[in-house]
Design a protein that fits this description.
about 0% strand; about 85% helix
Length: about 230
């Protein structure tokens, strides 16, 4: 009886999520909803600009600190909400603050079991990182070889100074941030009826695809080299 109750307790939340997704797909138009939310955010931004920027930076920094897989969406939202240079500055500042918080969280709040599990997963990169830390960090930031939420935890496992890790990470994410901003502003321009925005959207998407292909190629090459050695 207890086993049945336990099993139902595990299945019930998943069942609720599935029902909500089905209801959302039937009764909610995602395009209209996203457009409505975007317009509401624009109104808030125009009325309370500095507070909005501050709140955005704090929220983005918390996403990075807590290692939530939402940084890409936050970067796209920055591209929607701000002009190019402000969006880039907001992303870099948020990531810098978030990485500091993430290092503190990883070192002080993670359990020993969690640390050992992540250390086993990141072991091969930790070995490469120890030989060429800055070059490896730049590659991991530029190319989607390893999830960024795991890259953020590297200082917990490898000998690198925190300020070097933060500064190199901020510089290395600039190309990816630029690509996401271009994608977001291209979509926004298309919504506004600006046909030339297709160019920037295409450039951003092409850059993201190129990074993915390069990342896969480097990963395959690294695996072959590792197998031979």
């Amino acid at each position: 009886m207890n086993n049945i109750v336990t099993s139902l307790g595990k299945i019930f939340p998943l069942f609720i999520v599935i029902i909500l997704l089905i209801l959302g797909a039937v009764f909610i138009d995602p395009l209209k909803l996203s457009r409505y939310l975007f317009e509401e955010l624009v109104v808030i931004k125009e009325g309370y600009f500095y507070l909005f920027v501050l709140g955005f930076v704090v929220t983005y920094a918390l996403i990075v600190t807590c290692a939530l897989p939402l940084a890409t969406m936050a970067s796209l939202l920055a591209g929607f909400m701000f002009d190019f240079w402000l969006a880039l500055a907001v992303i870099l500042l948020s990531v810098g603050l978030g990485l500091v918080g993430n290092m503190y969280w990883a070192r002080c709040l993670m359990s020993q079991k969690q640390t050992e599990r992540l250390q086993q997963y990141m072991m091969k990169w930790a070995n490469v990182f120890s030989n060429a830390p800055i070059r490896t960090l730049i590659i991991l930031r530029l190319l989607p070889i390893v999830p960024f939420v795991l890259v953020n935890l590297l200082p917990t496992f490898v000998p690198i100074k925190g300020w070097i890790f933060v500064m190199v990470s901020m510089l290395a994410i600039i190309p990816g941030a630029v690509a996401l901003i271009l994608v977001a502003q291209g979509v926004e321009g298309i919504w506004a009826g600006q046909q030339d925005s297709l160019l920037w959207l295409g450039v951003g998407v092409a850059f993201v695809i190129l990074c993915q292909q390069l990342g896969q190629g480097i990963m395959k090459k690294w695996d072959k080299t590792h197998e031979k050695s």
